[in-house]
Amino acid sequence: MGNDVINNKNNSDVNNEKSFIQVYKSTDEVPCEIWFAPKDAQIIRPFTQIPPDPDLKNPKFDFINYKWFDLNGATQAQKLSEISDKIKNMQHELANGTASKEDINNINEQLSTLTDLVSAVAGTVDTEEGIKDE
How many Cβ atoms sit within 10 Å of the Cβ of residue 69? Predict the structure, then answer.
């Protein structure tokens, strides 16, 4: 109990030294996560003090332009394209007999990710346009 009480004159100084600020962590794995940092900490990537716009459905921070953007179908489409290219290259290696067991496992892994992304993009398009195929 004695450690918790500091004379009133210095109490506000101690509270200011120990106070925290809200920051946001943004990575590819976790696009937007709230964290707290000491008030005097240097805030560097993957953290920012800039709050995301509440209108963004799936915010991610752009550390090049220092602003938040929405991870939408366009971003997912770019990932789909990249994965599709990787799969085509791996299938070519497989057809030519130059693929290893590791390459084959990688193809299966990429196909699983591709399936997940296609499902995510389909869900994004459905919710954005308000249209569902029945």
Answer: 17
